[in-house]
Every structure is written in C-alpha cells, then in structure tokens.
Amino acid sequence: MTRPQVVIVGGGVAGTQAARVLARRVRGGAEIALVNPAGVTVHPELLPQVVTGVLGPDEVGVPLLLPGVRVVAGTVTHIDAEAQRVLYDGGVLSYDRLIVAAGSVSEVAPVSTISAHSVGFHTVGQALRMREHITRQLALAARATDSFDRAARCTFVVLGAGYAGTAAVTAGQSLARSIAHRDPRLDEREIRWILAEPAERLLPDMRHRLSRTTARMLRARGVEVRTQTSLSQVTSGGLRLTDGEFVATRTIVWSFGVRPDPLVTNLGLAAEQGRIRVDDHLAVPGRPEIHACGDIAAVPDPARPGRLAPMSGQHALHQGRLAGGNVAASLGYGSCRPYEHRAHDSVAGLIRT
Which keywords fit this entry according to its UniProt record (predicted)? Predict the structure, then answer.
C-alpha cells in the first residue's frame, strides 16, 4: 500500500516543529518531505546573542536533521493546489497533505539604500553588521574631538518596538555598555538609546501587561521609549521623528517591515492581511488537505477575538506543533485540536542584562 505523501514548505520554527510532531505521530506511516532553501534552520530568537557576541553567526543555525523526514534543498516557486503539486527550483513534489510554513520576509532588507547609517535586525548577517556598526561608532566616538560628532556617534535609534525592536535595543545597549566599560575614553552615561514605536504602546501585538512591564524595565535601563512616534525624515546627519525632534545620530536600526512570504500571492487561496486564511485548526477553508502555520498563516487569535495571532516565534512554535498534530490526525493518527495558545506574560526573552 502506498503511503500518503506529506510536503512541508519552509524549514523555520513552524515548519520544523510541524515536521517533528508529524513524524513522531505517524511513525513511518507517511512519507514526509520538507522543502527549504538551505540545510539549516535559523533561530531568530538568538539574534540578540549575535549582537552581544555571546554567539557567533554560525552558532544560530541548526542543521535540518529530522528523523523520519526527507529534507529537500530548494526554493519553492509555486504551489498548484488543484493538481496538489509543489514546484521548486529542483523539481516537483506531489502531496496528499500540505503544510505551508514559508514564514516571512523583511521589507526593509536593503536598509543601506535609505541611509548609510541604517542597519536591519531580521537576519544573522544584519545582526552581525549591527554589532560591527555599534563597535565602530563607539570607537570613533572615543577618538572624536568634536563634541557634536561624539554625541551623534553615541546616539542609537531603534525604529519599531515589536519583539524584534525590543530585543534589538536591549542587545545593542548591552554591547555598548560592555564596550564603554573596557574603554576609559567612553562614559556609559553619554550613550543614548531611543526606541520609537508608531503604535500607542510597545509590543502592540502582545498583552497590555507585558507591554507596560517591558516599557517600565526599558526606561529603568535608561532607554528613551517613544510611543506614537515614527520616522519623518532621514538626513546624512540623523533623522527627524514625527514628534518634531531632530536626532543627530549615526545609527538607525530598522526592526519593522516584516511581511508574509510573497509565495502567498500565487497560491489562489483566500488571504487576509497578506497571509493564508485558516480556521482555528489551521486548515485552509475549502482545502482540508492544506494547513498553514507561522508568519504566513492568518490564524485567529483565541486571546483576542476578531484579531489575528501575532507574527512571532512563540506563536510559530505552537502553531507548527499543532499543524503537525492535526495533519497526523487527518491521516488517522490521533485527534484534531483547535489553536488555544496563550502568550506567556514574561519579558525574560526580551530584556537581557
């Protein structure tokens, strides 16, 4: 008897979790193939450790070695839902069940085109560049004889106070403090960090209590938290915020601008906010053989009726596990469950000393 074919698109947090759970449940009862551009998966929650130097760039990637799963190296170019086929740059895969977990991409990856002082915080390469940039600016500040130039090089602005922005500002500040402690020419008190967020509060997709606690802890660390504030203008000497203040700086960290993988636009499936629409079991309405999870999926948020679950690693982790379990259930292994994840009210993964 031919075993059912399951294809998983994407080897990020959601995709790898789906593959692990599915393989464990079916115990060889299905052929599972995971398609990913590389043979490693990167853990974005470790990017702050790249900035601080705790981890090297090669240490945040984990080889995709999943028991019971065939890893296919390739980039998916199209999904033919009618023919139940996945087309990638190395061939074609047919499926009986499909899990789409392609994740998200950064809309501001070419930040250097916006300003020579801009760095991103979405990839390992950007995190490494952020570390190098902060180190260089402080080294130049230590040698500067002009007080204005020194102050500008000691001023760092992070735009976007979601999970990434909050992690970026704490990691960057920790690195700057470490450098200042080792260099007697620098005074930690003159190093300024600004975190600007267009929404009314930090972490706008998270619980209010977590947002308030995070803001309080950041301010206690000396971070200038600006809500309902965004970028108005970038110049060679700094930037102007929407509250009217001009900030002389040589560092602008972009932490926003993430959108679902553009693969969504070619699927012919219902979408919401650029993400694949799914029900509370992560199945695509009208296409029970297709599930979606992680940043690419428009998952109803059980904690906030009428809204979608945030695009975050924490949600991707739980959604991936559920998608794997529910696909296994559709093949006769276990039972199907709805998405019931609750975000933990903890700033442990955000604020690091």
Answer: FAD, Flavoprotein, NAD, Oxidoreductase
